[in-house]
Amino acid sequence: MQWTVTMIVLAMGVSLSADRVKMRSGKVIEGMFMGADSKSVRILLDDGQVSEVPLSDALAVEFSARKPAPPPPPPAPKPAPKPAPAAAAAPAAAAAPPPAPKPAPAKVVTVPSGTVINVRLTQGIDVDSSQAGMTFKGVVDDPVSVNGAIVIPRGASAILQAAKVEQSGKMKGSDKITLKLNAVSFGGMVHEVATTYVETKGKGEGKKTGRKVGGGAGLGAIVGGIAGGGEGAAIGAAIGGVTGAAVAAGGEEHLQLPAETRLQFQLTAAVSIRS
């Protein structure tokens, strides 16, 4: 009796479920052990009722082996928090501006060697006060085209340079100046060029002077007519009186090229123009 009570008490201290309770009468009660105290053992029957067996009537409690309870499933991952709704005006303010369109690649046109560039002086040139290396200003007087498209517009700035200067007072002969076109500029870009030389001579003292001009008007006609054409000669003749006046006043010729004089240059090397 003492052993049976001890066994039942031990059963009370574990969290196992009873399978069978053997009675002293030989009866066996099967169910689920619910608990026990010093008076009775409680068994959960299959029909759901709880049977209380007096401890004095119980002989033994047998527990069947049980599989350990499976571990609980891992918790489901928490969904990512939804972003807080932006204010009504926020989307318009936060919207990224569309990317700026890429600039079109610069078009390069090659002006071939031999192309003629007519230049009109915008400042006068006095040979007596000029030296080799000095630069003078002008403008392109006629547009330059390639394949029917204008690549150098009329009115583009032109920079001329004195390649050689000779004054009649320093050597026997006449005043002479040799000019070349150094660069043209337009659209914020400067294009250096290589051209032929244009030489202009005044009337010398001797009869052996290379290119003699028989008067102020004739000199103006040659200076203006370098462009090749009656119109250039007419412009030169109109300014010839000014050059002739300079000759008459000094007793000897001092060559001057007044503003508006047309000069014609020819490219000696091709030049690339970016548009």
Strand content: 25-35%
**Unreliable sequence segments:** 1-18, 206-251
- Summarize the amount of helix as a percent range: 10-25%
Q: State the helix count.
A: 4
Strand and helix order: HEEEEEEHEEEEEEEEEEHHEEE
Distance between the termini: 118 Å
Structural class: alpha+beta
Mean pLDDT: 73
The biggest sheet, with number of strands, parallel, antiparallel or mixed sense and barrel status, is: 7 strands, antiparallel
Report the principal-axis shape. Answer: rod-shaped
User: How many distinct beta strands?
Assistant: 19
Quaternary organisation = single chain
Radius of gyration from CA coordinates: 58 Å
Describe what you observe in this structure.
The chain is α+β, with helices and mostly antiparallel strands. It has four helices and 19 strands. The protein has helices spanning 2-12, 90-94, 216-225, 230-250, and strands at residues 20-23, 28-30, 32-36, 40-44, 50-54, 58-62, 108-111, 116-121, 125-126, 135-140, 144-146, 149-152, 157-166, 176-186, 189-192, 198-201, 256-257, 262-266, 271-274. Strands 8, 10, 13, 14, 15, 16 and 18 form a seven-stranded antiparallel β-sheet that branches. The longest helix is centred in the last third of the chain and has 21 residues, at 230-250. The protein is rod-shaped and about 165 Å long. The protein starts with a helix and ends with a strand.
